[in-house]
Every structure is written in C-alpha cells, then in structure tokens.
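Sat 14:20. Reprocessing the chain from the morning session after the first attempt stalled halfway. Input below, unchanged.
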Amino acid sequence: MEFETKHLVIKKFIPEYISIMYETWGTDREVGKYMPGFRVDWDIEGFTDYILRTYKDEYHTRAVIQEKESNKIIGNISIYQEDSRSKSVNIWLIKDYWKKGYGTEVLKGIVKELKKTKIESLYATCDGRNIGAVRMLEKANFECIDIIKDYREDIDGVIGDEYLYEMEFK
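Finished this time. Tokens:
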C-alpha cells in the first residue's frame, strides 16, 4: 500500500526501515504503552523479530509513514486481513508527532485506499485508556461497536478495557 496525503507519504515497508523504527520509537515506553507484546527492554534483534513476525505473513500488509516536510519516517502501519470481507488496522506514531492530526490523516487515507478494493469493513481496536487512539478513530468516523471489559494489559501489567471500532464501506 502506497499513497500520499496532504502532509504524509505512506510507503511500502522494507526491512531496512527496522533500524529507523527501533531508534525512533522501538523502546519508547509512551509509544508502546498500549501495544500488545511491546517491550522497552528489547535490543535491535528482539525488536526486529517483533516487526518481522508479521512482515512475511500473507495476511498482513505493513507500511511506514513519512512526513513530507522533513522526509522523516515517523510511524508504522499494520493492516491485517481478517476475512474475505474485512481488515483491521494498527497505526503507531513517534510521540513527537502526536496531537498534530497525522494519525487521523493517515487513517482517512487508508480508508480512502481500501474503499477502492472489495473490502466491506475496516476494524481497529485500542485500549480505552489510550485517549489519542480513541480520538483518532472517532475523528476518522469509526464507530465504537463493542467494549470488552478488563481485556487489555498495558506495558505495566495494568488491565484495561478494549474498544472495538468499525467502519463499514457502503
């Protein structure tokens, strides 16, 4: 998946981006706080394994987010094929780029691109305590369709609610 938005370029993931990802957010506690399986104590090999576990999986598509102004890789996207009709999406951004609308911008771009396909719906989940993710999904017109109580464990081992969002393509 490759496309551009007003401020961003979405580029196909290649393994050469892993070292940049590791250096910019790979051990950042705030970025990884609500990411399942994230660790702040891994080395580059552990982080590489974390990223590559899905890279060669036929059901995953991975991309990186590049800011046009700086040409800096500022985030990562993972899209998973749930079934023949739906996909789910995860987006990570370096914290220096939080609260700039970039998450919403990239999510709206993903929706626009996926509407060109035969996909009928796009899902996303987040920890209910992750206010930035909740705002991003709601600004991109996703609908919260379920809340699973006491389901998600954050990086500190604290349990929170998982929010399930959906956007149907009509």
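The domain at 3-119 is CATH 3.40.630.30 (Aminopeptidase).
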